[in-house]
Amino acid sequence: MSNLVTWLDRLGLETLGSRVWRGQLFRCLECGAVLRRAENSLRCGCGKAYPVIAEVPMLLPNFRSSQAAAPLTEAEVGQVVAAFGIKDDAATRARFAAIFAQTYQFDESFLEAENNYLLQRLAINREARPTVEALAEPGTGVAAFAVVRHYVPETLARGGGTSHNVRIRNTGTEPLLRFARGGWSLAFRWAEGPEAGLTPLPVTVLPGREISLPVRLTAPEAAGKGELRVVLVHADGRVLDGAERFSIAIVEKVQRPYRALDPIRGPLAADYDEDHRIGIRLVERAVNLAHARRGLEIASSSSPATCNLGCLTVNIDIDAQTMQAAQVVFEKRGYSNVIFACCDALRLPFAAETFDFVATFAALHHFADPVSVLREAARVVKPGGFVAVMCEPTGHEFERPHPQIVEVLEHGVNEQIFSIDEYARMFHAAGLRPTSSQLDDDSLKVILRR
Ligand SMILES: [Zn+2]
User: Fold this and answer.
1) Residue 55 Cα, ligand 1 centroid: separation in angstroms?
2) 264-299+345-449 adopts what CATH topology?
3) Domain coordinates of the chain in residue numbers?
4) What is the rounded average pLDDT for all residues in the chain?
5) pTM check: above 0.70
6) Measured in angstroms, how far is the CA atom of residue 358 from the centroid of ligand 1?
7) Is residue 128 over pLDDT 60?
8) Nearest to 342 by CA among 390, 295, 301
C-alpha cells in the first residue's frame, strides 16, 4: 500500500495519496493488521475492536472508562471553551460536556495521573485534592524500597563526579515521607564508605508508587572494582538499604561505546513558549531538508508543536480527554492536516517505517522508560527520516526543586531530569544516532537518525 501512496504522491495526487494513507494508518495492537472503521470503533479481522470516542481512536492495550463522578457545570464547560479560544456555541459546549462526562482508568498510576489532568491544566479545580501528607500515615508500617531502573554505567573514571538517575518503587507499607517534612533522601553508597550526595525526596512516595531522581556520585580514587548500592537516608540518620548491588569498574579513563553529545549553545530561552518556538524552528528546518510529508508527534497534548509545518501529522497522547478536546479545537480552527489518537508511546499502533519523522516536545522525560519510547520511535520512522527530541530539561535540579515540579510530582505525574550524558546513552541504547544537538539554557534539543 505504501507503494501506491508513493506513486500517487509522485503523480502529484497528494490529496488522494493522503486519503488512501489515512485509511491505512492504524494497525491492530494484537496482530498488526490494518484496522477498518465501523461506526464507533476501529475493527480488525482478528476480532479485536478499538473504540472511537468523540472521533478519537482509543488504541490502548489496557484502559477502562467510567462516568465521571460529577459532570461539568454549564459555567465550567464555558470556561473550557474560553480556555481553548474557540467559538462558543451550543454544539461545541455539548461536545466538551460529553468529553468530560467520562474518566479513564489505567493500570499504572502515573498514566492515570497523566490522564484526567486537562481540567487541572486549565485551572478548573473541581475537587480539592487531599494533600499526600493527609493521606499518608508515616510510622505505621514497614518502610522498604526497590531499585526499578538506574542509569549508572558499568565503568566510571576514578575520582570522577557524576550524576545518575535512579528509579525506586516504594515496596513497603509505609509512605516514604518527603525530606522537607523530616523524611528521606536518596543516595549512592560504596561498599567501603559513607553515603554522599544526598538527593532529598521532593514529595512523599506512597506504597506502590515509583519516582526517578538524579543522584550525585563520586567514584573512588583507586582504580579497581567497586560495589555500589542505593540507600535511603532519613533526616534522623536511619539508613534503609536497597537490596541491589552494582559492580562497577573504576578505571583511569572511561571509553564510551557511544558518541558523547556535545550540544552547541543556543540562544538563552526566555521562557517555556520561547523555548518551544526554538524547538519548532529546528524541526521545521529538518522537515524541509528531508522533504518530510508525514510526521508523528508523541505526547502532543492539545497543542501539537508540528501542526503548522505544512505536513500531515499524527498526534498521540495517553490523555484521552486532551486528545478529544484537541480534536474539537483543531476541527473548529479548520486544520485538515492533523490527526489525533489516544495511544501508548510504548506500543505504537503503526507499521514499521510509516513516518518521515517522529517528534516529541518536553515529553520524553515524563516516561518511566524513555529508551523504550525511543525504540518505538526508531521503529516507525522511515530510513532517511529523523527523530526529533526537543526541549528536554537537563541538569540536576532536585536539590532545590522548582515549586512547579513539586506540584506536578504531587499530582503523580512522572517528572524526571536526566543529564546530557544519560540522554546520549539512551539514544545509543535505542539505536539512534544524534546528528545535531543544541542546548538553550537547560533545554536540550536533538535530531537523531537510525
Ligand atoms: Zn488484529
Assistant:
1) 21
2) Rossmann fold (3.40.50)
3) 145-251, 264-299+345-449
4) 89
5) yes
6) 24
7) no
8) 301
Ligand 1 centroid to 282 CA: how many Å?
37
Q: How far, in Å, is the centroid of ligand 1 from the Cα of 423?
A: 35
CA of 24 to the centre of ligand 1 (A): 14
Confidence of residue 256 (pLDDT cuts 50, 70, 90): confident
- For the stretch 30-55, pLDDT in tens is 999 999 988 899 999 999 999 999 99
Side chain identity at 417, as an amino acid letter? I
Grid cell listed for 268: 538563552
Question: Measured in angstroms, how far is the CA atom of residue 32 from the centroid of ligand 1?
Answer: 6
CA 54 / ligand 1 centre spacing (Å): 22
Q: Assign a CATH topology to domain 145-251.
A: Immunoglobulin-like (2.60.40)
| Ligand 1 centroid to residue 377 C-alpha, Å | 21
Report the Cα–Cα distance between both ends of the chain, in Å, rounded.
23
Closest CA to 24 of 12, 14, 36, 38: 36
259 Cβ contact partners less than 8 Å away, ≥ 6 residues apart:
424, 428, 433, 434
